[in-house]
């Protein structure tokens, strides 16, 4: 939601408050994620173009109406402003991937960005703990599973072999 975007005056950056997530479905934690300057610029452009000042940043556009909206209209009430569902996000990602010509477009989900970021962080030298914190995982198990392929070239043996090759 727009209200969840918050400036961090100490770092001159922004963060987004995540009130609940897959690993915190009851909203018990106080979870914040970094928002880059480039992302914030894009969000601000979208908010201005869509004339959104509060509530959900990303909303359904067109398509079939959800049951909550249909019911409100039937009762002559103002329909609720709803955010995108996980299923809608996955569908949008798959459509964009297909439009970009990706062979594996049908395998992409809303979770793909989280997994991709974990792999990018691993390749950039982040520790498992740092990736776990960035991705909001409760334990290291999922980070290890998702970054298995990236870790193949980013471990003690790989570093030793590179070091030995440099000294030859």
UniProtKB/TrEMBL annotation:
The keyword Nucleus does not apply. InterPro entries: DNA_brk_join_enz, Integrase-like_cat_sf, Integrase_catalytic. GO terms for biological process: DNA integration; DNA recombination. GO terms for molecular function: DNA binding. The keyword Mitochondrion does not apply. Residues 83-150 form the Tyr recombinase domain. Keywords: DNA recombination. It holds the Pfam family Phage_integrase. This is Phage integrase family protein. It comes from mine drainage metagenome. The lineage of its organism: unclassified sequences, metagenomes, ecological metagenomes.
């Amino acid at each position: 939601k727009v209200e969840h975007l918050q400036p961090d005056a100490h770092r001159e950056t922004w963060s987004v408050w995540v009130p609940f997530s897959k690993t915190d479905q009851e909203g018990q934690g106080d979870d914040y994620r970094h928002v880059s300057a480039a992302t914030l610029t894009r969000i601000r452009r979208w908010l201005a173009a869509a004339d959104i000042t509060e509530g959900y940043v990303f909303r359904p556009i067109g398509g079939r109406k959800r049951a909550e909206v249909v019911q409100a209209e039937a009762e002559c009430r103002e329909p609720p402003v709803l955010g995108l569902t996980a299923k809608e996000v996955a569908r949008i990602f798959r459509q964009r991937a297909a439009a970009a010509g990706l062979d594996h477009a049908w395998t992409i989900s809303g979770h793909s960005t989280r997994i991709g970021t974990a792999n990018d962080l691993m390749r950039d030298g982040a520790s498992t703990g740092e990736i776990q914190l960035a991705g909001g995982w409760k334990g290291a198990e999922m980070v290890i599973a998702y970054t298995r392929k990236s870790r193949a070239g980013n471990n003690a043996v790989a570093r030793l072999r590179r070091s030995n090759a440099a000294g030859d």
